[in-house]
Amino acid sequence: MTILPITLCAAAAAAAINIWLSIRCGMVRSAKKISIGDGGDMDLIARMRAQANFVENTPVVLVLIAAVELARTANPWLMGVAAIYMLGRVGHGVGMDGGPLGFLRGVGTLTTMLTQLGLGVWAVSIALDM
To answer: What's in the keyword line of the UniProt record (predicted)?
Structure first.
C-alpha cells in the first residue's frame, strides 16, 4: 500500500482552509441576517467567491501533488510547493475582504497560478522522463 504523506498533509490543510472560509461566510451571513443566497451584499459576495475560488482550484492542485508524489516520493520541494499554495490561498481569502490587506488577493491568485503551472510542468517532465 502506497502512503502519500505530502498529499495527505496538503489535503488536511485544504480541509482546514475550506472550513475557515466557510466560517467566514457564515459570520457575514449571521451579522447581516442573510440566510440564502448573497442578498446583494458585497461583503458576503466577496467571501463566497473566496471560498468558491478555493474549491475551484484546490482539487487540481491536490491531484497534481498526488501524481508527482507517486512518481517522486519524499521530495521536500513538493511539500514546500504545497505549503506555499495553502498560504497563498489563505492570503487570497483575507485579501478578498479588501482594505489594507487587499493586495493579498493578487498574491494568492498569482501563487495559485504559478503553483498549477509549476506542478503541471513538473508532472509532464516526469511523464516524459526528463
So the answer is: Membrane, Transmembrane, Transmembrane helix
Contact 108, 89 (CB under 8 A): yes
Domain 3-127, architecture per CATH = Up-down Bundle (1.20)
In this prediction, residue 113 carries a pLDDT of 98
Torsion-angle region of 41 (φ positive above 0: left; ψ -120 to 50: alpha; else: beta): beta
Predicted structure pTM score: 0.94
Whole-angstrom distance, CA of residue 101 vs CA of residue 108: 12
> Distance between CA atoms of 130 and 124, rounded to whole angstroms?
9
* Mean pLDDT of all residues in 47-66: 98
Within its chain, how far is the Cα of 91 from the centroid? 10
Distance CA(118)–CA(129), nearest Å, equals 16
* Predicted local distance difference test score (pLDDT) of residue 2: 87
